Each structure stands twice: as structure tokens, then as C-alpha cells.
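Re-running the complex after MR caught last week's input typo. The corrected sequence lines follow. Everything else is unchanged.
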Amino acid sequence: MPRFRTLIGALSVSLVMAAQPAWADDGYALWLRSIAKVDRQAVVTALGDSATLTLAASELRRALPMETPAIVVATASAPSVRALTLPFSTLGDEGYLVCNVTLNGKRVILVAGNSDRGTLYGAFALIRHLATGGQAAAVNLRSAPKVKLRVLNHWDNLDESVERGYAGQSIWDWWTLPDFRDPRYTDYARANASIGINGTVLNNVNAKADSLTAPYIAKAAALANVFRPWGMRVYLSARFSAPIELGGLKTADPRDPAVAAWWKAKADEIYRAIPDFGGFLVKANSEGQPGPRDYGASHADGANMLAAAVRDHGGIVMWRAFVYAETDPEDRAKQAYSEFKPLDGTFADNVLVQVKNGAIDFQPREPFHPLFGAMPRTPLMIEFQITKEYLGFATHLAYLGPLFTEVLDAKTGQKPGETVADVVDGQAEHHKLSGMAGVANIGRDRDWSGSTFNQSNWYAFGRLAWDPDLSAEEIARSWAAQTFGTDRQVIDTVTAMMMGSREAVVDYTGALGLAHLMATGHHYGPGPWVSDLARPEWNPTYYHRADANGIGFDRTASGSNAVGQYAGSVAKSFAKPETTPESMLLWFHHLPWDRRMASGRNLWEDLVAHYDRGVAYVAQMQRQWEGLRSKIDAERWQKTATYLAVQEREARWWRDASLAYWMSVNHRPLPAGVRAPEHDLAWYKLQRFPYAPGHTQ
Ligand code: GCV
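Corrected-run output:
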């Protein structure tokens, strides 16, 4: 068990300690740290005895001290609650209200939803309210999720490795399941429920058919049983060729009745073991995965065949739009749109098309994917990456809230005022299904996510999936308070560090719209020079196109015309360098190194300044963190300080290696006063990391 103390206990300890608080905290408790002493817990009454309602009550008791006013947890249908005629009608299945009422003649805080899941979310909302400095007396919370499916995607393999995972092995111990149910599975579900996540895809989208065999279905069922009372459903990634590999069929062609029958029987088998199974996630015809295109069938044919298999059970299919092919000479950024846009309106109504936030692949910055708003007759689920494949793995501090909200807040240009969030939450077209997926950053590390600050990205994903209109800063402040306590200096400093941290990664890895500049395979560290990989679009040189004269990918009408996939005023603004935000300039335009920038510097000087700004930001975070030494427990403080030192070193490495390379291409000197790279280009090119984590061959 984690070695934590009550918030009050922690504060009193910090008062008597002159130096750093000495208690150890391994981060296991995540943001659910407020713990009441067993004999001094709040008085909580549950009007009902469902497993979920019981959990809601026990979470409140566990977190809140006896000084908290009496609390009643209930559903709207409890007779005494019904008599209050509270506004439950707009809360849907999962919403909640938390307010002071007089119930049976007594003043209490009522926590209630239309379902016990809503009540559970309300319990966690009350805990959050109080842990972030809110008062019990004035509590009045009311919220319903705007997005229906709020789902983690685990890229976890059956051998317990995690593709792009930087927090240790998979938390699913497939080998000992279904017999052994690690208590950690409960803590996982509890953490997810506390931020509103209601689904999890257990296995990697690069799927093995074995996960659909009877033994693995039983293992998934054991996890589903643990997760159910917490309001979480289990989903599986399906390997499209499973009918061949497991069923002995000659084909996986979705139009073949034998194939459809195989999937139907497989779905029936899964639902016998997991009655509330959520459905399938599919990566098809992408990066070597099998799919309907192998047979000349369309993505819609494939998705609809699987959708028919789960339909009678209430299941859904999340079909990924992350497709590109080396045989396709079209700009990689255009391929998913070209393939999927014409299919709009042809998907079954229990299919969502799952689209990455940008058109390439989770880069530190990408413009929003042009499919958002372009497929009005199809529910589009957005896929974010919580694990930081391209943002420094677990060791770099990069709070992704600003990345997520930048995309969600982007105007699609399709309809006046329409944002990506409007498309994702289904509001734009009144879709009955809506969803947000986050590629998990969770592993068997004691602190779950590889670092304390990485926990904030899991938290931010959940909070935004519930309400895509929240601000990244508001989420950061809540997380900081729930994670480190309500000391004002700590919250302000931690929030300030977090808010600029993603931009710092953009700056030191390649700003101004550059992307995909990392080394091969593992994606750790710089490799802008790489140009010899088999697939053209795997080479960084494909993306930056730098030469002596200029840099950037011309995606205007004179180039690949990816700009043409955007709509209205957005397409118009991306079409010209003068109207493209400088943060995305080189994504859309190839420009001379001498181009004048808003700063008054030329493009080359500006790029150099960004690298330096990114490195300086990390050094500043180190100073800010140093200032909190006496206020944070030793274990979390030290690990973060060590990681910040790693990040500072690696930010300089990114900067130096990149500048050495750009100078070899543009033959320009560094601006006056700018520090030269520490080594020559040849040295940077020689660096190898054969054992970097998260890389699956
Ligand atoms: C699961 C990128 C990653 C792959 C990942 C893929 C995807 O290419 O590098 O590891 O595969 O995206 O999203 O399917």
C-alpha cells in the first residue's frame, strides 16, 4: 500500500520540518490522496445497496473526515430523493448533482444521479471539490458528460510488453489471469472512475488473434468483473485476419458470409463471458495490419461486418482512420482523408471512426485532422496519445492539456463556429454515439505513469473526455491540488511549470510546424538527417524538406494540396504563409531561410531562438521545482528533480543535434552570441539506443 498520510497530517508535518518533508510517497495514490483516518471518517449513508452505490459511499468515507457534513448517496429514483423534485432530467445516464438538501428532516449533502454510476461520479466530484479547496457548505455541483465513450486504449501486448509504454510492463498480468486478480486492477478502475473514464481497450491495436481465444476471453472477463462496479466496460482490439488464424477459414473478406458468421459466433462467445462487453477496436490496413482492403473491400465493409456481429448485444465498433501506405505516393498527411471521406454515410450506426488528433502521428504539434467536420454523417471519435512517444517518453515533463485543448478548440471551418470538440461530442450533428480515446501511459511502475507529472496527462484526458470545454489550466490546477495539496505556492508554481511545458518540447524538438524529426524506430532523440528508410514517409527528410534555400513541406495548391482538405476560412488561412499561424508555418509551407518572421528575425534566426527558448524553459522548471523542495515529499520531489535534469540534458541534445544538422544543410552561421553545438554532426549521428523502452519491432 502507498505510504501516504492525511492532508492534515502532511501539513502539520511540514510545519515542524525546516527542510524537505521526509515522508516517502511513491506516487501510487495518484490524485486520490485525501485519506481520512479510519476512526474519523465522514458519516455517509447509502440509500440502496448496489455495488456501485456502495463504492460511492466507501470512497467518500475513505476520503473525507468526520467534520464533513453528513452525506447521502442515492439515485434519483429513491423515494425520498424523488420527493425533492430536483433537476435530474438533463443529467442523462451518467450525470450527477451534489447539493445541500433537507432529507427526512435533516440537512445533508446529497450526491445523486439517475443511475448509480452517476452517483459514483458525483462522489468523486465532491471529493475533488473539497480536495481543491471548495467548501462543503456551499457545494452545488451539477454535471453530465458531453462525450459518451471515454476510453483508454492500451497498446499492451500479450507478452506483457507495452508498445510505446514507458512505465514498465503491462499492468495486465495475462499469465496469472483469470485466477489472480491483482488488487491493482481495482485501483486502476477506481482511478479511472474518479475522472469519468468508462471504458478500456485491453490489448494493442497491433493485435494478436490469440486475444480472441477462449482462455484470453476468460482473462478479459475477469478484468471486466473487477471494472464493472466502477462503471467501466471492457473492449478488445480485434485482428482482422482472426477468422483465418483461429477459424481456419481461407479468407477474412468481410463480404464472405462464412467470415461474417465466424465473427458473429465469436461475438456471441465473448458476450456469454462478458455480458456488457463494449465492442471492438480495429487497426486495419495500416502499418502491416490485415484489413478489408486486402480483399478489395472498403473500410466500411469491414467495420459494418464487425458491427453486425456485436449489434444485437448493444456493442459498438471503433474503426481507426490511421491509414497510410508506402505504395501510395500521396502526401501521408492526406491519405486518411482521401480514404475515409468518401465513405461518409456508409457506416452502420454502431460504428465510430476513430481519428488521431492530427493527420500524421501524435507529433508535439500538428494541425487538427481535416476529417473532423468533413464526415458529418459518421460519429468521429478523437484519439489522443497520453503516452509520450514523441514528447520525451516518461522522463520529460510535458503536460498535454494544452495540446488536447488546442485541437479540441480548433475551428473546423466547415460550419460557422464549429469546433473539433463539437464534432467529437456529437453536438454538431446530433449523433447518438460520441467518443474520445486516449492511448494510455499506464504500466506496472509504482507511480503508474513513469513520473508524477505524467499522471496529469491521464487525469487531463479523463477530465476533457467528460467535458471537452474545460480549460487546460483549470485542469492543471485541480490536478496539482489533488496531487500535492492546497498550498497556494505549490499549486501556482506547478501549474505554471505545466502550462508551458508542452510548448517547450515543441521548441527544443523543432518548432514552427516542423514534425517527425526523431530518430528511427524508438522515436527517442533527434534524427532530422535520417533519409535512408525503406518507406519514404518514415524519413524525417520527407517531412522537413530542408535544403540550402529553405525548409518546410509545401502542402498548398502548388505542393501536395493537403490544405485543400480543410474547409472554409481554415483552408483559406492555411493556404498562405502570411495567414498561417507561425506555429504551423512549415507544416504547410516551404519557405526561404531568409523569410521575415513576426519577431523581426529571419526564419533561421527564429528557429534557433525557439530551440534556445525550449532549453531555457526546462532550466526554468528546474529552478521552479527547486523552490518547492521544502513543500513536496522527498520521494516525489527527488524523482522529478532527477527527471528534470535528464530533460535539460536531452533538450540541449535535441537543440545541438538539430542545429548541427540544419547548419550542414543551409550553410549558415549561428546568429551572434548563440552557443555552438557541443559536438559535431557526425557525433550526433552515431548515437544508438537499441534498448529504448516501448519499441516493438
Ligand atoms: C500501435 C505509430 C506508433 C506505432 C503505433 C501506431 C498506431 O506509428 O509508432 O507504435 O502502433 O502509431 O497508432 O497504430
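None of the earlier attempt is carried over here. The radius of gyration is 26 Å. Residues 507-553+590-685 form a domain with the Alpha-d-glucuronidase, C-terminal Domain fold (CATH 3.90.1330.10).
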